[in-house]
């Protein structure tokens, strides 16, 4: 999961990795993670609570949310 802000290089790296893994977006606030799906608007992406999530092989964003109780 990304932090609150990424450099342009880090952002590009995440998208390069997403060619081989399912990249998703989540909203993280008050220790609660909400799945935002596979695409978000630029305004949502700029939000401090929006994170990119790159689950490992065999995982989905939904499964990570369930497994972490978020």
Describe the model.
The protein has 3 helices and 3 strands, in the order αββαβα. It has 70 residues and is an alpha+beta fold. It has one domain (8-68). The chain has a 3-stranded antiparallel β-sheet with strand order 2-1-3, with helices on one face. The two termini are 14 Å apart. The model has no long low-confidence stretch (mean pLDDT 87).
In short:
The chain is of the alpha+beta class. It is built from 3 helices and 3 strands. It has a 3-stranded antiparallel sheet with strand order 2-1-3, with helices on one face.
What's the alpha carbon Rg, rounded to whole Å?
12 Å
What about the largest sheet?
Answer: 3 strands, antiparallel
Arithmetic mean pLDDT: 87
Structural class, by secondary structure, is alpha+beta
Physical arrangement of strands within the biggest beta sheet: 2-1-3
Please tally the helical runs, counting DSSP H or I stretches of 4 or more residues.
3
Q: Give the tally of β-strands.
A: 3
Global geometry: globular
Q: How many structurally independent domains?
A: 1
Order of secondary-structure elements: HEEHEH
Strand content: 15-25%
Helix content estimate: 25-40%
**Alpha-carbon distance between the two ends:** 14 Å
Spans where pLDDT lies below 50 across 5 or more residues: none
């Amino acid at each position: 999961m990304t932090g609150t802000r990424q450099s342009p290089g880090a952002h590009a790296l995440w998208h390069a990795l997403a060619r081989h893994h399912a990249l998703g977006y989540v909203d993280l606030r008050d220790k609660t993670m909400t799945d935002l799906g596979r695409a978000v608007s630029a305004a949502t992406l700029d939000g401090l609570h929006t994170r990119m999530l790159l689950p490992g092989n065999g995982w989905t964003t939904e499964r990570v949310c369930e497994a972490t109780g978020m």
